[in-house]
Amino acid sequence: MGNDAAMIELATSVNVACGFHAGDADIMRKTVELAKARGVSVGAHPGYRDLHGFGRRPMPGLTSSEIENLIAYQIGALQAIATAAGHKVTHVKAHGAISNVACEDDMTARAIANAIKAVDPNLIFVVLANSKLVRAGEAANLRMAHEVFADRAYEDDGNLVSRKKPGAVLHDPKAIAERVVRMVQDGAVVSVTGKVIKMRTDTVCIHGDTHGAVEIARGLREALSKAGITVAPFKTAH
Questions:
Q1: Less crowded by CB within 10 Å, the N or C end of the chain?
Q2: How far apart are alpha carbons 201 and 204 in whole angstroms?
Q3: Neighbours of 173 (CB within 10 A)
Q4: Distance between CA atoms of 121 and 75, rounded to whole angstroms?
């Protein structure tokens, strides 16, 4: 869906789909091998079991234990592939709709955090800054990386603008680079209405399937470097 090989040349950490919303064992192995060769860390990117909708459609009605199992299963799949390739999983970031739901729903957020803790409490939990994922990660005593999005617009409440709305996805590499440098330096994002929202910024996401993602990533790396901001891969505690 995107130029993964080119993105891995520019990223320091990558989130790998684990077969439920995208990918399969062969794609996962190839991605992990590319990441290992570049010294890039890999993380599990679990989503709803929804290949047709790319995991971007809500699936209401799942119980807490069903969500935990959904997440644990996908983390385990990538851990096995990474081990086979001589690499290791450093982090977990929920994908698409399940992440969006968890940002506002305590049960879903807790289920994701509990699954990560049960599989490996040393994994870093990548969370949308200021969301309910943060509280769930704190309750599970997980190390967290607070994430901001380079290519997505923000609502006034700090959540991402729905992809169903115009302007939700950003494409201008220069504007994105300038915006992200400000995010990192100021510890804040600016919403669609101009509201400044304070946010801890540990990691910056670029979606591999966003049109122009490689150009966005290249421009962002250059801008961060010029601003004296160093980027580095995730490292687990062990």
A1: C
A2: 7
A3: 21
A4: 12
Coarse DSSP helix, strand, coil percentages of the chain, rounded to the nearest 5 percent:
40, 15, 40
Q: What is the pTM of this model?
A: 0.93
Pairwise CA distance, residues 46 & 141, whole Å: 20
What is the signed CA dihedral for 133, 45, 126, 232, rounded to 10 degrees?
-170
For residue 111, give the H/E element and its range.
helix 106-119
And the tokens for 108?
Answer: 């879903």
Structure tokens at 224: 């961060």
